[in-house]
Write a structure and sequence with these properties.
The structure is a single chain. This protein is mainly alpha-helical. The chain has two domains: 188 residues, Cytochrome Bc1 Complex, Chain D, domain 2; 143 residues, Cytochrome c-like domain (Cytochrome Bc1 Complex, Chain D, domain 2), CATH 1.10.760. Helix content is 33%, strand content 1%. The chain has a two-stranded antiparallel sheet. It starts with 8 loop residues before the first helix and ends in an 11-residue tail after the last helix.
Length: 363
């Protein structure tokens, strides 16, 4: 049976577009003999990718300077929402690692979501998206919020007409994709290109561990690091270099899961209460924590793992074997050291990088 992750981005997006009815018959206008978009290579350290942690860059949506520039504008474009008040950046805020400091984001007409907005970091390595892993590519993920009743609550035909009528957008689509016509697939492609540039690999931990700067971490942060990769078993799921794995797991938040997670999408009992493992990079600025934002501080998160993991929850993940054995034992100093180390995963350059901020003016 074919793994759904092997579907090409183009085929999957086209299928979803047809299902959503986003397109009508249109004449596509090409730029003809003008030069094509400029290829863009990501600037990242050599240690960030290897045979185990390979980037996922779809062949049918290559990174280009023009595509990323268009995606950046669309990421900050409020015309995507029905009432023109919300953009992607409204709930994915750069200074909070492109997450939302509110427990639940507020959508169009004041609608309140049911899950915390995930941080957007190093997405080119992810195999699936959303807390419940329901999207298998960034392109598919980008299509969803526009129609979601708790988010932008718009219709794609309305969005596309607004972009066609806005000065400059047809030319930007022409530069990025060779067509002045605007469709939902190219909107999603541009957004995905921009989001793939949200790279964060410059924390104090990176300087200490990869650049051999012994002064980058304090003695307390180093004790916390030893616990993180040792007796606290954090690295069982939050692996280097991304500080996450590709798991969709039940970590024992509730004895009876309130939110069914992946199981809500599949209907399978074995998937109940399972959620995507998030990255811990920039975790100190992306509160609140967990899929439902139930923990306001890192101290609360560490206390949960030390004291409150529900071992009797259905589908309790095998990755949590150390908890089944009772092997995780953290005293007050251990917990403080762990929190100190987690703060050392903050990449301040990423949080202020002007390449990711709202463009000075819309087209």
């Amino acid at each position: 049976m074919t793994d759904p992750r092997t579907l090409t981005v183009g085929a999957a997006c086209l299928l979803l577009v047809l299902m959503l009815g986003c397109h009508s018959e249109q004449v596509i206008t090409s730029r003809g003999s003008s030069p094509g978009p400029t290829p863009l290579s990501l600037d990242l350290p050599a240690w960030a990718t290897d045979s185990t942690h390979e980037m996922i860059l779809p062949y049918d949506n290559p990174l280009t300077v023009e595509g990323v520039a268009l995606g950046r504008r669309l990421f900050h474009e409020k015309a995507l929402s029905r009432d023109g008040t919300i953009s992607c950046a409204s709930c994915h805020i750069q200074e909070h690692a492109f997450s939302d400091p509110r427990r639940f984001s507020i959508g169009t007409d004041g609608r309140v979501g049911q899950r915390n907005a995930m941080a957007l970091i190093n997405l080119s390595w992810s195999h699936f998206f959303f807390w419940d892993a329901r999207a298998f590519s960034l392109e598919l993920q980008a299509l969803a919020p526009v129609r979601d009743h708790e988010e932008m609550f718009n219709a794609w035909p309305e969005v596309l007409q607004r972009l066609r009528d806005a000065p400059g957008y047809p030319e930007l689509f022409d530069a990025a994709f060779g067509t002045m016509e605007i469709d939902s697939m190219h909107v999603a492609f541009a957004l995905a290109q921009f989001e793939r540039t949200l790279l964060s690999f410059n924390s104090p931990f990176d300087k200490f561990h990869y650049d051999c700067d012994s002064s980058a971490l304090s003695s307390q942060e180093q004790r916390g690091m030893d616990l993180f990769f040792g007796g606290a078993h954090c690295a069982d799921c939050h692996e280097l270099p991304l500080f996450q794995d590709h798991g969709v797991v039940n970590i024992g938040l509730d004895s009876i899961p309130i939110d069914r997670g992946l199981g809500q999408r599949t209907g399978l009992h074995k998937h109940m209460g399972r959620f995507k493992t998030p990255t811990l990079r920039n975790i100190s600025v992306s509160a609140p924590y967990m899929h439902d934002g139930r923990f306001a501080t890192l101290e609360e998160v560490v206390d949960f793992y030390a004291d409150d993991v529900q071992l009797n929850t259905p589908n309790f993940d095998d990755h949590m074997f150390a908890w089944k054995l009772g092997a995780v034992d953290l005293d007050a100093q251990d917990r403080a050291d762990l929190v100190a180390f987690l703060h050392a995963l903050t990449d301040h350059d990423f949080l202020t990088d002007p390449r990711f901020s709202e463009p000075e003016s819309n087209p």
